[in-house]
Write a structure and sequence with these properties.
The chain is of the alpha+beta class. It is built from twelve helices and nine strands. Helix 2 packs antiparallel against helix 3. The chain binds 3,4-dihydroxyphenylalanine.
Length: 367
């Protein structure tokens, strides 16, 4: 005879019994606690909380239970799953912190370790500046001209209208060489390159000549027996002082920045007539209402001496075989070292010549 089996308690005999569910939960919790890292925990999550995990499968079975058993079984499984989810969340947090700490340790860089790196070399700032100046004139269509540092006395002086009695020819300024009968000097300026150029070519002439020059000066913060000049020379028809002024303004602005232009002060050089000293707008105060105290660089002048210039003396043109009726020229000359000091702020000329690599490293990569 059949009838309802009232003795049968399905909750206790199916896999959803309290012990089985607790066993599934405890196994899951143990696995979570044992997960060594986030990757391991990922697998544990799949095994114990994934779609095919024992608890998920048990959950699916609830629907198959007799109605009176579903509620209790549902609670049991639900609580077990919640416990597993919470344990996963907590373990994730713990392992994330651990992972981060390990990363900090493993990826630590000891910035104090010595390296095998070699300092990069750099060109000497004077070389760079000479090249830069040459380049900016080449960009105007000029050519670079050179001459020897051991120069004929005639080219260094006579051709430039520096007569035999000129003070620059005395022993005080000039390094003479022996035997004196060779009439050779270490050139005292780059101006002989002007004479060499005019003697070897025909106008139009547009040349820029950077180079070393020598004078018997004491070696101190503002003097050196060897230093550098740059000479410019133009010989063409219809050349005027205005061309000279425009060229020097451009030169100055390229070297020292916009607004740093030039002014001329009347002066005398045997090789130019008229002649002028060239001043720059003070590149520190920019010539704006300076006083002796407010600008140490120009001492309140608003201007800084830069070099010399003028219209080439017809006597020089004639000495170098150029028709001075047809052609006129202008010329200028300035110190490269001095210009470099202006740009770098170096206050002692010797910094340029001592060969300390720190000076080259700091200023040899400019431009
Ligand atoms: N040679 C001159 C010097 O050493 C500088 C100079 C002045 C050069 C005027 C020039 C010039 O070409 O026109 O002091």
């Amino acid at each position: 005879m059949s009838g309802p089996n009232t003795e049968y308690d399905p909750v206790e005999v199916t896999p959803l019994g309290a012990e089985q569910v607790a066993a599934m939960r405890d196994e899951a919790l143990a696995a979570i606690a044992a997960a060594p890292d986030l990757a391991g925990l990922k697998q544990t999550r799949l095994d114990h909380a994934g779609d095919r995990s024992p608890l998920a499968l048990a959950n699916r079975e609830i629907g198959a239970l007799p109605p009176q058993a579903r509620k209790e079984a549902g609670q049991r499984v639900g609580q077990a799953r919640a416990a597993v989810t919470q344990a996963l969340t907590e373990r994730t947090a713990v392992l994330e912190v651990a992972a981060e700490e390990r990363m900090l340790v493993e990826e630590t860089v000891d910035v104090t370790l010595p390296t095998a790196r070699r300092p990069r070399g750099s060109r000497h700032p004077i070389t760079l500046m000479s090249d830069y100046i040459a380049d900016l004139f080449v960009a105007l269509g000029w050519e670079v001209a050179e001459g020897p540092v051991l120069e004929a006395e005639w080219l260094n002086f006579d051709a430039l209208n520096l007569g035999p009695d000129h003070p620059a020819r005395t022993m005080q300024d000039t390094f003479w060489t022996e035997p004196a009968s060779d009439h050779l000097v270490l050139r005292t300026h780059t101006s002989p390159v002007q004479a060499r150029t005019m003697l070897s070519r025909t106008p139009p002439i547009y040349v820029i000549c950077p180079g070393r020059v020598f004078r018997t000066d004491e070696y101190d913060a503002t003097h050196s027996p060897m230093f550098h000049q740059v000479e410019g020379l133009v010989v063409d028809e219809g050349i005027t002082m205005a061309h000279l002024k425009g060229t020097l303004d451009h030169f100055a602005e390229q070297l020292f920045g916009d607004g740093i232009t030039t002014r001329f002060r009347p002066s005398y050089f045997p090789f130019t007539e008229p002649s002028a000293e060239v001043d720059l707008v003070c590149f520190v105060c920019r010539g704006v209402a300076p006083t002796v105290d407010s600008c140490r660089t120009c001492k309140g002048e608003g201007w800084i001496e830069w070099g010399g210039c003028g219209v080439v003396n017809p006597r020089v043109l004639a000495a170098c075989g150029i028709d001075s009726k047809r052609y006129r020229g202008f010329a200028f000359g300035m110190g490269i070292d001095r210009s470099l000091m202006f740009r770098t702020g170096a206050e002692d000329l010797r910094a340029l010549f001592e060969g300390d690599v720190r000076f080259s490293a700091a200023f040899g990569t400019e431009w």
